[in-house]
Amino acid sequence: MKKSNGSQTDTLYKLFIYIALITLAISIIVPVAWVFFASIKQNAEFYGNPWSIPLGFHVENFIEAFQEANMGNYLFNSAVVTVLALAILLIVALPAAYVLSRFSFRGSKMINSFVKVGLFINISYIAVPIFLMLLDWDTVIRTILGEELLLNNRFMLALIYASTALPFTIYLLSSYFQTLPSDFEEAASIDGAGYFKTMFSVMLPMAGPSIIIVILFNFLLFWNEYILALTLMPGENQTLPVGLLNLMAAERAAANYGPMYAGMVIVMLPTLILYIILQKRLTQGMTVGGLKG
């Protein structure tokens, strides 16, 4: 009887988990699929049943979004800023995380404490101070060079993105580096490898799954960031989230819904493609830390 009750409980528990996962999957898949279908509908189709299948593939919505709403330029700006931000972030965070996790030196505990404090700083709270600081610097630069350099600058936005993501990235990578055995470093030292060669040739390849997680999470963060992009990019170098909201406001006012949903697809598609490509590596990276302990 006790065995029967135990197996019944396990069955009910598994059933609950399956139902919860299926419900979660449906709640994600249905809205995404609906946006994709809406992006290829003609405008007249939006006034009927909102759940109806598109009558055809109305590619003109994407053409209008790229040509008239300038989504192609926004897409290029977002790609440049995101790639630059990821490159700067990895160049700084990987050596910092390795040193802070594998070496003990004077001030290392204080630096680790500052990194952990940085995890609790919300980017929304510092957007205006950053803008005012860059505005003041631009005023000085304008008096010397006659033009502004810091605002509406893709590299500066990428640098700020990387800076704001450093605490989380260093903390995540440090936690992973701490799980790696020191035997490999000792073997590299016996073979005559210095600190830099050991880090680049031995430790960073072993941290590959964790680096994949960092790239994916920060890509999503940089690609979808809106507040800093709106504040620091007032000119023609605006990124995709800002351009999407401009497009949505214009098309909603004109009651032209197809290009609006096409713009949403343009924003979502790169993240979906990246997740599909890295899905297997992401799963490995999330489980490998527990296996090494």
TrEMBL record:
**Signal peptide start-end:** none
Question: Does the keyword section mention Transport?
Answer: yes
Indicate the segments forming the ABC transmembrane type-1 domain, all copies: 75-278
Listed CDD domains: TM_PBP2
Question: In which compartments does the protein localize?
Answer: Cell membrane
Mainly localized where?
Answer: membrane
Q: Which UniProt keywords apply?
A: Cell membrane, Membrane, Transmembrane, Transmembrane helix, Transport
GO BP terms, alphabetized = transmembrane transport
Q: What's its membrane topology?
A: Multi-pass membrane protein
* InterPro entries assigned to the protein according to its UniProt record, in alphabetical order: BP-dep_ABC_trans_perm, MetI-like, MetI-like_sf
**Transmembrane intervals:** 12-37, 74-101, 113-135, 155-177, 198-223, 260-278
An annotated GO cellular component: plasma membrane
- On the tree of life, the source organism's domain of life is Bacteria
What protein family does this chain belong to? Belongs to the binding-protein-dependent transport system permease family.
| Name the record gives this protein | Inner membrane ABC transporter permease protein YcjP
